[in-house]
Amino acid sequence: MAANEWINGYLEAILDARAPALSDAEFHPPQVEPPDASHVDMLDVSYFNPTKYFVEEVVTSYDETDLHKTWMKVTAMRNSQERNTRMENLCWRIWHLTRRKKQFASRMLNRRIEKEQGHKDATEELTEELSDEEKVDPDTTHTGPTFTRNYSDLDVSSEPVQKKKSLYVVLISVHGLVRGEDMELGRDSDTGGQVKYVVELARALATMPEVFRVDLLTRQIASPDVDWSYGEPTEMLTNKSFDADVGNDGESSGAYIVRIPCGPRETYLHKELLWPHIQEFVDGCLTHILNMAKVLGDQINDGERYVWPHVIHGHYADAGDMAALLSGALNVPMVLTGHSLGRNKMEQLLQQGCQTKEDINSTYKIMRRIEAEELALDTAELVITSTQQEIEEQWGLYDGFDVKLERILRLRAKRGVSCHGRFMPRMVVIPPGMDFSNVIAPDAGDPVDSDLEATLSDPGLPISEPPIWSEIKRFFNNPHKPIILALSRPDPKKNITKLLKAFGECKPLRDLANLTLIMGNRDDIDEMSGANATVLTTVLKLIDKYDLYGQVAYPKHHKQSDIPDVYRLAARTKGVFINPALVEPFGLTLIEAAAHGLPMVATRNGGPLDIHRALNNGLLVDPHDEKSIADALLRLVTDRGQWVECRRNGLKNIHLFSWPQHCRTYLARIALCRMRHPQWKDESNGDLTEEAASDSLRDLNDLSLKLSIDDKLTMTNGISEILQKAAENVDTAQIVSNFKHELEKVREDFLPDENEPFRSSSLGRVISSIDSSSNKVPSIRRKRVFVVIALDLYNEHGMPDHALVSSIKEIIKATKTTIFPRSPGFVLSTALSLRETGELLCAGDLQKEFDALICSSGSELYYPSSTNAHESCNGGVDAQFFADPDYATHIEYRWGGEGLRKTMARLWNSDESNEVKGESAVIEDVEYSNSHCLCYQVKEPSEVPKVNELRKKLRMRGLRCHIIYCRNETKLHVLPLLASRAQALRYLFVRWGADLSNMFVFVGETGDTDYEEQLSGIHKTIILRGCVENGCDKLLRGGYSYHREDVIPFESPHIVRTDHGTDFEEIRNAIRKLG
């Protein structure tokens, strides 16, 4: 109530104004629902009395900061009529504020109920097959070492995780301005503590004995608005903290910032505008990692095998999304650090009641950010947090993480019981490290008895002071008093005004100490953002109110290099560092202060709890209680013994937050990740030499010679012509097919029927040998340019439309011209099963055209066999194509399989809205399902949940998968998490070197719900207007979600559109335009 005293005057003013009676139309503002029944008693047919409403609903339930500013302006008005009008408007603002808060509370309640139901369903399904002895309630189980969260003071062995210096670690932090020297921290909201953290982490990891190379991947920026250094492709991070000799480790060892271009090259984009360019950045990173894996393989393994990243570590939501896609493309473990979480931010903004969900999403792209965090949770093996509070109160808000379900799954895994595809990421607490290279650490045993006159400015002593000291001391009447130091940006959440009130209200504290507020850099308060300007204005007013001139310093400017000197000044005056934030996610400044010998007073909400537990160097306070803040500060300033003890404890334990300690814990944790990396069954890779790529051509010559000698046959003119084309480096796949055809002619023309055994043994071996040779390296390996046809053109029954074959033929015809220097490779990407695809190709006589088939929405990958077209159509689909032997293993990660199928069945049966005329709106289609695709027939599209809603239900039950509505809303495909048509193209790049930048992807204007994934990236996209009219867009996102422009960069130079569908000339012109 005390914080809302101003409302009392507001109420009196409204009552004194004797507002006239309001009719129903006047009372209910436009486009606002009428109050519910609980508020009926506040209305009177003849007079509007707001007293009960304000007392019951408003006074104790909201933050009135913005309204208070309006109130101050209104009360200053002299015109009574205008003042009363403004009062009425303010009344409705409060009504809307409370209404939005009640809606938010209702949504949170529904979400909590839904999440509890998901936890209950998952628990019941998991315990069905357990015996009574195995059924243990995780809430009553004492958490042993398996469940203990890992704090920085955990006893971790100092032995290296891996003796050989061979680890390759990839870090991703894409937004902001990232460089190793002279970081511009605080330049904007994107360039802050995260930038400093990732740069120092990369440096520190590179000094560890088992780490060979660390790459920090970020965005390349060649904008005239920023320094030229942000446009440099590579920057080596020099080692500041250690004197490790890395000269003999190899020319590529060490830590590097690698800048990947994405989006408009000459524009600096804030993080909210980077979302459409995620896929382009991923493709660029993939190219770099593949090149580096080969280089490191040459240096570390003498070229015998590649060195793949040990982990890919994403920082923040955008980099988490990127790391998830890279992890899927490379099949390597992923680690995630959230830094700041979208759901937590959205909750705080909604609770303030000042913005609607639509406004928040428009400003911060918050729903796109939340979905990226959910996807990162789906993929991450390990999530690193700074505090325990972050795990329980922030990550606990997400669909993809549930503390109780995680304990159940870990208990089952420990006992060797199947989790049926359910997974919860492992969360560990590893506080950030600190670079102590610029810290002049005092002796922990020093009792600090030195004369203050000798340590402060004294004209008689030839002591040179840092410039920032003079800048601070000029504010003080007595600079010898202990300094209470607060260092933060002027953000309302940092609670600086509450600290100033506590200092001003406590006369003993004012008499004994000075207060220094380092609140960022400023030139003119009027030019600052609204929130920051408000805080600074309030600070100046409070200084004037309490007459604190000569006792409070608030310098306008400082450099990053000045911060250690500021800590030193406070420590030399026997001062105290304070962080009074309402909630502090971690509190890196507390560690910095402790390293300089400063005791702390900090908020008890968030990270300072863990820091205090480790350092024991100060006091924790309630940030809302001014008296508590003042008492804690006064206690440390006056009690010299406690001050010295806190100082000693901080200096003694600060090593727990050093970078070496952080890195040892970090490497120990990632060593527990399930190591995955690309492994091919035939031990071949995507970087075959030209010599290896021409093996099949040399085999042709060898086999033809064998045929002439062993079978005493001469080569036909056809064979001679084929070998001549082979020497001219013509398409090898076609050569192999023609060669086999000519061999069949030899067999039929030259060998009589009585020599059937001879034909079978000799020519049969030759043809079999050709099959083996041609299948050894699929024809796609030898292509340089690729045409990917991904037209989702289906009729109302979900079958291929009659126009699909003709469209494919037109695309092939238009691209098989002199546009490309060599014949392109063709890839068909479809939701059809292999059998349906084979029938489609045979119907159009297209089976010889394609070098790869991506079937069942990306769950299967096939290459053409060497059987001729006529035989393949007669022999069935198995004779036409063979499956990639490694792809199934590649996408197996976290596939729920049978457990997922059972859960899907329960969901359909339990949801009454999914029933149409007594039967389920979705039924399983076993005929079109395969080992990595659960196929369902959609009976009524209007009755099924949207993709985001269904995915949320499965995430809450610990199941991770990719959900796609396809084939004109007639089918639902549930795939492994890492399987998709877009990811299949990246697999072809990793496996066979199919360069993504040389891919031309043809799509319609709409398609299946995975349509958006295929448009962006470094490949070229050609959208055929008018070709596909019916898609599944309506089933993609429901309710409050992000928009298509948050995913697709429509202004990208890599995307063009034709005006008339599959017109021959327009396709040619589109390809020419894309280059």
- Which regions are unreliable across 5 or more consecutive residues at pLDDT < 50? 14-57, 59-63, 138-162, 242-247, 449-457, 682-716, 726-733, 750-775
Sheet having the most strands: 8 strands, mixed
Strand content: 5-15%
State the total count of DSSP E strands: 28
Pathway: Glycan biosynthesis; sucrose biosynthesis; sucrose from D-fructose 6-phosphate and UDP-alpha-D-glucose: step 1/2
EC number: 2.4.1.14
Region (Disordered): 115-151
GO molecular function, one term: sucrose-phosphate synthase activity
Descriptive notes:
This is Sucrose-phosphate synthase. Residues 141-151 have a biased composition (Polar residues). It is a single chain. Helix 27 packs antiparallel against helix 28 (732-750) and helix 30 (802-815) crosses helix 38. Mean pLDDT is 79; it is low at 14-57, 59-63, 138-162, 242-247, 449-457, 682-716, 726-733 and 750-775. Strands 3-4-2-1-5-6-7-8 form an 8-stranded mixed sheet, with helices on both faces. Strands 19-18-17-16-15-26-27-28 form an 8-stranded mixed sheet. The protein is globular and about 95 Å long. It has 38 helices and 28 strands. It is an alpha/beta fold and 1075 residues long. The protein is 42% helix and 12% strand.
Quick take:
The protein has 1075 residues and is of the alpha/beta class.
Please name the defining characteristics of this protein.
HAD_sf, SPP-like_dom, Sucrose_synth_GT-B1, glycosyltransferase, alpha/beta, 1075 residues
